[in-house]
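---------- Forwarded message ----------

FYI, see the Pilus assembly protein PilZ record below. Original note from H. follows.
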Amino acid sequence: MQQAVALRTRNPGMKLDIQLGTKMLMSLYGSESKHGTELIGLNPYEYLILKMPLVPGIRNRMMPGEGLTIRYMFQGTIIGFKTHVINHISKPSSLVFVEFPDSLEQYELRSDKRLKCIIPTEVHSSHGVHKAAIVDLSAGGCKICFEVKSSDAVRKLDSDEMLVIKGNLFAGEDATLSCVCRNVEIEKSTMTVGAAFTDLDPCVSRRLREYIETVSTFL
């Protein structure tokens, strides 16, 4: 999977614009491991309340003053900040209190991450409607795999033809994506099509990036 190149900018005046329930990734200073957490509450300019990650032994590391790095997605951009543990509790729920950040770091993705996947889809073209699967997905395009017979009209698909893809993306929600065919490869009964997305609605583009980023953290 191709890694995105990040442009990091530090902005002390950037407002922490975040909703309760936002999924986040937490890492301890000196560790490359990232642990899933969630924003439960906050007191502006004083502290944030996060779920304690479900990782054996991590509670013993959450001592007052322990340094943490927190990252989350906001409108297709990765936002990060450094903070320190204030305290943690185990009842009524396992929570950790951390200092409110005084500055944020913004990571702009310069290149698209690629996600290896198998997503059943329906492809509409001038050659009809055919069942297929997306096997490679990025914010800029995808690779589609068809099982074809020698008589199937879709074998005539060529570069620069328009396609419409319909399938369950974004955690099971139906989505429709328009794209243009870039290349076609046929080997026996398998046809692979490389396609570039076109005219995506900004909201769909943002959700696509967030979906890829979220799934990639678990791979």
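H. also flagged this: The two ends are 10 Å apart (CA to CA).
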